Amino acid sequence: MPDQSRIFIVDDHPVFRKGLAQLINEESDLMVCGEAEDVTEARRALEKNKPDMVIVDITLKDKSGLDLIRFLRDNHGDIPVLVVSMHEESLYGVRAMKAGARGYIMKAEMTENVIQAIRQVLSGKIYASHDMISSLMGMLGRKAVTSSDPVQSLSDRELEVFQLIGKGYGRKEIAEILGVSVKTVGSYREYIKRKLNVKNSPELVKHAIRWTGNPE
User: How is residue 78 annotated by DSSP?
Assistant: First the structure.
């Protein structure tokens, strides 16, 4: 049996984790060494499982996958990260790369491309679509990045709060998840309302639910 690269999966959907693990374990040179559904569980399990690579979703049960990517960059810089997410790369791709990820692939493309993406990232290369590479090059060239989606204007933390609102969490719950005060969450909500041109809190909640794809 040849040496196998050990892959750790972090995703909050058990069915998706099972399907991805099956795809990976079919390859003779790859194996899934562990799974987690949130940032807290993943951080605890990393030392035990000692993966060669981590696959992370953006939306997790507790914090954003971006938080885990930054943690890995700062504490386990030798472990490359591939993001596999349902979110459009136009919104999260560059954010994930800036946080420390080495690749980004959307779940809709997973079956065809995920093994190629894994091997490319394991080899020390970047895996990204042509559109995302163009966005990254534009940023390096200090070109303005414009988007018709106002959600693009949110900071990483504002976007995280916006997502949690869409998942049905209240101010106190969001504060506990993010480790900040309720007052700070209130401030983020006000920033988000201004940037999205939302008039009041009920409208913000509706917009967040619609954007996250949660049923009302």
Answer: T
Q: Left if phi > 0, otherwise alpha if psi is -120 to 50, otherwise beta: which for 100?
A: left
- pLDDT (tens digit per residue) in 132-142: 666 666 555 55
CA 213 to chain centre: 16
Cβ-contact 109, 88 below 8 angstroms: no
pLDDT digit string, tens, across residues 33-89: 999 999 999 999 988 899 999 999 988 877 889 999 999 999 998 999 999 988 777
The answer to whether residue 86 is domain-embedded is yes
Cα–Cα nearest to 127, from 82, 67, 72, 79 = 82
Contact call for residues 153 and 195 (beta carbons, < 8 A): yes
User: Does residue 145 form part of some domain?
Assistant: no
Final residue of a structural domain among 115, 140, 165: 140
Report the phi/psi class of residue 124: left, alpha or beta, with left for phi > 0 and alpha for psi in -120 to 50: left
Q: In this predicted model, which residue has the larger pLDDT, 23 or 108?
A: 23
pLDDT of 129 reads: 74
Chain mean position to CA 72:
13
The total number of structural domains that make up the chain:
2
57, 10 in Cβ contact below 8 A?
yes
Q: Rounded distance, CA 41 to CA 146, Å? A: 36
Structure-block tokens of residue 163: 């997502």
Structural domain of 188: 150-212
